[in-house]
Design goal:
- The structure is a single chain.
- This protein is α/β, with parallel strands linked by helices and 391 residues long.
- The protein has two domains: 258 residues, Crotonobetainyl-coa:carnitine coa-transferase, domain 1 (Rossmann fold); 73 residues, no CATH class.
- It is built from 17 helices and eleven strands.
- The strands form three sheets. A six-stranded parallel sheet has the order 3-2-1-4-5-6, sandwiched between helices. Strands 7-8-9 form a three-stranded antiparallel sheet, covered by helices on one side.
- Helix 1 crosses helix 7, helix 7 packs across helix 8 and helix 10 packs across helix 13.
- 34% of the residues are buried.
Length: 391
């Protein structure tokens, strides 16, 4: 267990030390959540270069602490080493000896070549939880293939599914696979820590972008495998996104006995759910183009607020389609405590999205702002008795 203190000993993961070899998003979003809830996360980085996300998107006024890096690396300390040097490797071995969890998201084989595969780490500290995030898994035909969020969207079938065939294939513009796999890795680490309390043993915990994207489609996959049925929520006949006179609105006509009747009431038109072609969900699916054309034409006649009021009055699920800036400015975002404002740096303001998990007795705070590369190297070496070697 860690002897380092961040000033909070009452957080769920206080006393847990995490040695974090991760970079970009899958791993860092995992280790950031562990840090948010009290773990002492030591981010091991390469000297002068650091995490790929520090520089791979171009230059930034704040140097290597650009917004993308900062968004994923609060509540961590950075220690930079030359991992190919004996001094650097000795330092990492000492850190592992003090660790509860070691995390990486390299391709299978990379950590082994560096001398820090699971067997190497277990020989140093047999109680370590060795957590790994990969593109496709630790074994199998794709284990050597480069993994990345967009590739997982494509390989998992998620990218292929659209509302209808007229919608072009495209990349989903948020890193679904990275974030879901990162959160799955958090879950795996916590489960392994609980099991270690009973057994005293460490183990390997692994997740894959590919697996996380398949798991996200569990309903669709079960429908296909069990009934040969293509379940597609975006293609439901009474759902969709429609432009209004001043924006756009999304509706979900479901989870009610007769949602089409209620939509017609909101539109102020005759109840077409009584027509034979729209009498139930199966016939509505068949005539979806006609329904969608009606919705498109009707919503285009008035404002988003007008239609929200009308639809909510009959309890149809609906929402305005907002930009990210509008969502960040939404009063609900503030009430939920989803924005952290940190002291500004030379590069400008530091504003980060907070944790989606709210615990009444363990509120998330930023105990450590996103670290500069190697900012804490001497501190962490001193904690494992290597201060003299660092001088």
């Amino acid at each position: 267990m860690s002897t380092q203190s961040d000033g909070r000993t009452d957080l769920p993961l206080s006393g847990v030390r995490v040695i974090d070899f991760t970079q970009v998003m899958l791993g860092p979003c995992c280790t950031q959540m562990l840090g948010d809830y009290g773990a002492d996360v030591i981010k091991v980085e390469r000297e002068e270069i650091g995490d790929l996300s520090r520089w791979s998107l171009g230059s930034d006024p704040d140097g290597l602490n650009n917004p993308v890096f900062s968004s994923l690396n609060r509540n961590k300390r950075s220690a930079a080493f030359d991992i190919k040097s004996e001094a650097g490797r000795a330092a990492i071995r000492a850190l592992i000896e003090s660790a509860d969890v070691v995390v990486n998201n390299f391709r299978p084989g990379v950590m082994e070549r560096l001398g820090f595969g699971y067997d190497d780490v277990k020989a140093i500290n047999e109680r370590v939880i060795y957590a790994v995030g990969t593109g496709y898994g630790l074994d199998g035909p794709y284990k050597e293939k480069g993994g990345q969020d967009v590739l997982a969207q494509a390989m998992s079938g998620a990218m292929w599914r659209r509302a209808d065939d007229t919608v072009p294939l495209s990349i989903y513009p948020t890193a679904l696979a990275d974030y879901s796999a990162g959160m799955h890795l958090v879950q795996g680490i916590l489960l392994a820590l609980l099991q270690r309390q009973r057994t005293g043993k460490g183990q390997i915990v692994s997740v894959a972008l590919f697996n996380s994207m398949l798991a996200m489609q569990m309903q669709e996959a079960a429908s296909l495998m069990m009934r040969d049925n293509e379940l597609n929520w975006a293609a439901m006949p009474l759902c969709g996104v429609f432009e209004t006179t001043d924006g756009a609105i999304v509706i979900v006509g479901a989870f009610k006995e007769n949602p089409l009747r209620d939509i017609c009431e909101a539109f102020g038109i005759e109840d077409i759910s009584q027509e034979e072609r729209f009498k139930d969900l199966d016939t509505q699916r068949k005539y979806r183009p006609e329904l969608q054309a009606l919705f498109k034409q009707t919503f285009a006649t008035d404002t988003t607020d007008h239609w929200l009021e009308r639809l909510e009055a009959v309890d149809i699920l609906c929402a305005p389609v907002k930009t990210l800036q509008q969502a960040l400015d939404d009063p609900q975002t503030a009430v939920n405590g989803m924005i952290f404002d940190l002291p500004p740096t030379a590069g400008g303001p530091v504003r980060l999205v907070g944790s989606p998990i709210a615990m009444s007795d363990a509120p998330v705070t930023v105990r450590q702002p996103p670290p500069k590369l190697g900012e804490h190297t001497l501190d962490v070496l001193a904690e494992v008795g290597l201060a003299a070697a660092a001088e």
